[in-house]
Amino acid sequence: MRALPERAVAGFTDALIAERFPFLDADQQVSTARFVVGRWRVASQPVRLGTGAVATALGAVAWALAAMGGSAMAGSERAGSGRDAAWGKVVHRLSGRTLPGFSELEQFVVSLATAYAADRWPEAALAGRTLGTPTS
Amino acid sequence: MIETDILIIGSGPGGALTAARLAEAGRQVIVLEEGDWIDVGEHEPFSLDQMEAQYRNAGQTVALGRPPIIYTEGRGAGGGSEVNSGLYHRPNPELLDDWARRFAIRDLSERDIVEHAREIEKTLSIGTVPGAVTPASSVIERGGAALGWATREVPRWMVYGETSDAAEGERQTMTRTYLPRAREAGASIMTGVRVDRLVKKGRRIVEVRATKRLAAGIAEPLCFRPEHVFVCAGAIQTPALLQRSGVRTNVGHTLAVHPMVKAVARFDDAINVPADVPVHQVKEFAPHISIGGSASGPGLLGLALAPEWARFAEVTADWEHSSLYYAATRTEGHGHVRAVPFLDDPLVTYRLTRGDGKMLVHALERMVHLLFAAGARRVYPSVAEAVELRTAADLTELGQRLKPRDLNLMTVHLCSSVPMGEDRSRAGTDSFGRVHGFDNLRVNDASLLPEAPGLNPQGTIMAIASRNSAAFLAGTR
Questions:
Q1: Domain total for chain A?
Q2: Interface of B with A (CB under 8 A)
Q3: Any domain includes A39
Q4: Structural domain of A106
Q5: Most buried of B146, B254, B279, B340 (most Cβ within 10 A)?
Q6: pTM
Q7: Contacts of A47 in chain B (CB under 8 A)
């Protein structure tokens, strides 16, 4: 069982990668998110504490949104997809905004995700653009 | 309880050299290294895999500030020498004289250092590339020539094969040079051992408490009783350990770095060699600004463009035609390293002055001019909102609206966190690294440099460590 901050960082990372890297296919997104969370796990403690606290606060908002939508009460797959959708809403509303704490967390995830995805699939972003996928 | 004459904490360039010098002089030496022993070549140089295996916190370390500065530290036997570019500068005589005068450091002239530097240069096989340098390196030379700026090929600790090709060189790191020498002379090198704290009694360190990592999640405590302790854990970990041990006077408050701003340059020709770095540097503006080249694998190119990678997707798709360059500066501002109760990792902060910010923007402008003068088709400065520059004139508009806080900064040169000198009001150690107020506690690494030297510092760090080791042997025999 992962600790709360790590679960929150994982939820945030999944949603942010879906939002900012739509040109990666589903497997690539999963692999990229796994890399980011793995690097977060070994980051220096001040970095982990700061980003973990912000992600946990955002996770609480996502949880509340999911609960208001009724999905979190179902205790089934729907609850999981409800939380994913809530994370998506939170990230969509905040992504790209300059907010203390959030901007640092976003930069942490985007930087690592970019380094990994560009290293593993250097043509992915260009392929996404060629196919007409929105890239920002 | 393990008793020893000399205990060296850290096996990077300072610790490895100290271990070899003292062991070869017949002293009983134990070296403690927190990371693992990883042979050169086990991981592809400058790769994500290498970052995970050989960088502290897998490279996820940052000095907080506006803007924050990402920094990296090597972790493992050989420390930073295993992962850095291998670029060598002999200590600058004028700089040494300046430091000696301004920081009240005894015996720090060129005369006091040169023999140590020569021995290091021989051991590390310091030399220039016998054959052709990489195309990415030629870019710097070409741009400098077009602008009339002084450039030079910086020698490296490298042995080249029969091809004499720059990319085929083998780095002469500490695990290939001083650590094997220390071991041959009888030193014991223990890896996977983290030092938790030093126990002091009066003017002496009487005990060193450590933890030996046995397997994931399993560890055992170790206790050492040394006659002499040398802390050589680097400019972040050395002050953090001293502070955890209650040694705080002038420790950790004067961290100095060379912040770097980077840019991706795209050319018509294929110039990228991902496993190597350019060896040329612009010296026209030294020591205040240095311009050179960085490792440039596709992941690092993408990282420099983040968060706008998708907008400039052709850079990584066509990565052979692009390479990363940097402009590094000295700073007036400085940083702090603070050990935090209950945390293993210290809190690091860095405050750039307004003048530092202007200097960094100025350095970026010079680098962009250099790259266009060398024939770049596009240049992408690594700033908060990445932009594409098509001509040097585009930079004028960018320069006017660019704020220092928009720069994505990083550094690999960290020093000066426990500066040496006889002025006890600002120095953490005496002129030879002995911590003020202690008889048997010494620092012998990058922490001692009184300020950032404005060039790749490893040569200076090692020469001073060698001088200090000689002084120790002369004084305690």
A1: 1
A2: 47-48, 52, 56-58, 60-62, 64, 68, 297-303, 305-311, 313-314, 316-317, 319, 340, 343-348
A3: yes
A4: 4-20+29-128
A5: B279
A6: 0.93
A7: 57, 60-62
Q: Residue A122 is nearest to which of B60, B62, B298, comparing CB atoms?
A: B298
CB–CB contact A135 B297 (8 Å): no
Confirm whether A40 is domain-assigned: yes
CA–CA gap between residue A29 and residue A113 (Å, rounded): 9
- The active-site residue out of B116, B228, B280, B413 is B413
Secondary structure (3-state) at B190: strand
pLDDT tier, A76 (very low <50, low <70, confident <90, very high otherwise)? low
Q: Report yes or no on A135 lying in a domain.
A: no
Does A132 contact chain B (CB < 8 Å)?
no
User: B195 by DSSP, 3-state: which?
Assistant: strand
Is residue B258 annotated as part of the catalytic site, yes or no?
A: no
Rounded CA-CA distance A76/A64 in Å is 17
Task: Tell me the DSSP string of B128-164.
Answer: --SSPPPHHHHHHHHHHHHHT--EEEPPEEEE--TT-
Residue contact A118–B310, C-beta within 8 A: no
Q: Hey, CA dihedral for B459, B460, B465, B468, is it positive or negative?
A: positive
Residue B392 neighbours by CB under 8 Å, 6+ apart? B368, B369, B372, B373
Contact B158, B152 (CB under 8 A): no
In a domain, A44, yes or no: yes
- Mean pLDDT of successive 10-residue stretches along chain B, which has 477 residues: 97 98 98 96 92 93 93 96 94 96 96 97 94 93 98 94 72 96 98 97 97 89 98 98 97 97 96 91 95 95 91 93 97 96 94 95 95 97 89 82 89 96 96 97 98 94 98 81
**What is the maximum alpha-carbon separation in chain A?**
42
